[in-house]
């Protein structure tokens, strides 16, 4: 589903990843993270696609909201387990100035 975002400006957190071969509980944790993130102040939406490389984009109202999510205690705990699920990953943060 394509996220229904408000008029810009807002921010996009782009998470690009290559998964490890084993699931290691990934599906359950990913659902839990989405459920928690979607209730955070400033969360605007989410989109994701996966083939050889996965790309997930979450949309946020402000940089402060992104920082608060990054520092959320449950999210921090899951981040510490990244090697269980990802062979490689990168996070990029962009300001959306226009969408159409």
What does this structure look like?
By secondary structure, this protein is of the alpha+beta class. The chain has one domain (17-96): Alpha-Beta Plaits. Helix content is 31%, strand content 36%. It has four helices and four strands, in the order E-H-E-E-H-H-H-E. It has helices at residues 26-37, 63-70, 73-79, 82-85; strands at residues 10-19, 43-50, 54-60, 86-96. The protein is globular. The model has no long low-confidence stretch (mean pLDDT 96).
Features:
globular; 4 helices; 4 strands; four-stranded antiparallel beta sheet; Alpha-Beta Plaits; alpha+beta; 100 residues
Task: Classify the secondary structure makeup into a structural class.
Answer: alpha+beta
- Please count the helical segments: 4
Distance between the termini: 16 Å
How much of the polypeptide forms β-strand, as a percent range? 35-45%
Shape from CA axes?
globular
Strand order of the largest sheet: 2-3-1-4
Q: What is the number of beta strands?
A: 4
CATH top level assignment = Alpha Beta
Order of helices and strands: EHEEHHHE
Instruction: Give Rg in angstroms.
Output: 14 Å
What portion of residues is helical? 25-40%
Largest sheet: 4 strands, antiparallel
In round numbers, the mean pLDDT is: 96
| CATH architecture annotation | 2-Layer Sandwich
Count of discrete structural domains: 1
Q: Might you state the CATH topology name?
A: Alpha-Beta Plaits
- Uncertain regions: pLDDT < 50 for 5+ in a row? none
